[in-house]
Design a protein that fits this description.
single chain, alpha+beta, five-stranded antiparallel sheet, four-stranded antiparallel sheet
Amino acid sequence: MIPVGLFGADEAWKSKCAAEWTDQETKQVLTDSPWAAMVTPTMKKSEAKQPGNRGGLNVGIPGMGRRRMGGGQPQDSSDHGNESSSEPPQPLNVRWESALPIREAELKARETNAPAVDEDHYAIAVYGIPSRYAKDPQALADHLKGQSTIKREGQKDLKPSHVDVLQRDDGLVIVFLFPRTKEITAKDSRVEFNALVGPFQITQSFRVDEMIYQGKMEL
């Protein structure tokens, strides 16, 4: 997780319009800015033994297949093969997808397949989840609605009203849509996005008072 509050005073989004950003500055907006970060998830493992698995662990999530752990070699019921438990998790790109600087950076970077976002939702997107975790994208999307939040100090957690699972050549893009009727304001100071996607626990903080673009807060 990228520490919050460490951005400099001369960042491109503060001093330039999107048309003036260099390729490197555009990439920075998409990966290392108040609206985006490269996040290395932590790995979660099920501890519940399922009936009939003969001492092993069954890790199963709707839309993501089922794996047997213990009592022999791991087995994956999907067609994607086995994943080594010793394989370190790769960084994921977490973006506040509905923010104007992100949308403009995607346009400048010619990301023609950027997720569609309507004006009634805050959208946070996670890029880079391996495609093998979406055997059934709709079932996975429905499951993830209950596995993700935006946390605000002293207030109830925000829950997504909808989750989109998009399959791309380079992996999944998972878009979490939170209704803007539960408004995030400058008084919130800092918010924290949390999501459990299969074995991946993803956590990223955003400093609301730093999410300023062209003189206004952009979420």
